[in-house]
Structure formats: C-alpha cells, structure tokens
Amino acid sequence: MDPLLVIFGGLVAFFLLFALALGVWHPKTGRQIVGRSLRDHEAEAEIEEHDIDQMLDSLNELRRRTGHRDIGEELADEAMRGTWSESGT
C-alpha cells in the first residue's frame, strides 16, 4: 500500500471524525446538541403553541383598536366566498 495514500486517508478520516464530534458536542455549553429527549421537544411544542396563541391574540387586539375585524372572521368570510386560495396568492 502506498504510504502517501495512508497519510492522506488518515487525515481525511481524522477531519471527518472531528467534524462529527463538533456536531454532537457543543464546546461552549458543554452539553449535547444532537439526541435531545422527547420531553425537550414536547416542552418546546407547548411553548410554541402558547407563543402563537399570544401573537394572534395581540394581533387581533390591535386590529380591533384600529377598527378592523379579527383575522379569523376575515378568513372565514373569504373561505365561504371561495376567494381564499391554497397558495396564499
């Protein structure tokens, strides 16, 4: 076997393993990034659900103060008229 091939193959393997290790272990926090538990994902989903609800509530409040109807009412009317398209255009 050619020694040059072994050297370059070893370097490539080393850098691939090094890149993989960086992807799994975050150096600043010292904790794993990949492979979080299902509880973490459930907690994020719950937080996101509340964030979206709060965002819609505040947007509807702003629309009411400016004299417009709620977003849900406008979308329901457009769906009944058939003017609402799936692509959003």
Give an overview in words.
The chain has 89 residues and is an all-alpha fold. It has 2 domains: 1-35; 36-82. The chain is 69% helix and 0% strand. The protein has 3 helices and no strands. It has helices at residues 3-24, 38-65, 71-81. The longest helix has 28 residues, at 38-65. It is elongated, with a radius of gyration of 26 Å. The mean pLDDT is 77.
Which sheet architecture does the biggest sheet show? none
Mean pLDDT: 77
SS-based class:
mainly alpha
What is the number of E strands? 0
**Tally of individual helices:** 3
Q: Note the gap between the termini.
A: 62 Å
Strand proportion, as a percent range, falls in under 5%
Give the overall shape, derived from the CA principal axes: elongated
Low-confidence stretches: none
Q: Briefly, what is this?
A:
By secondary structure, the protein is mostly helical.
Short key terms for the protein model shown above:
89 residues, 3 helices, elongated
List the helices and strands and how they pair.
Layout (H helix, E strand, L loop, with lengths): L2 H22 L13 H28 L5 H11 L8
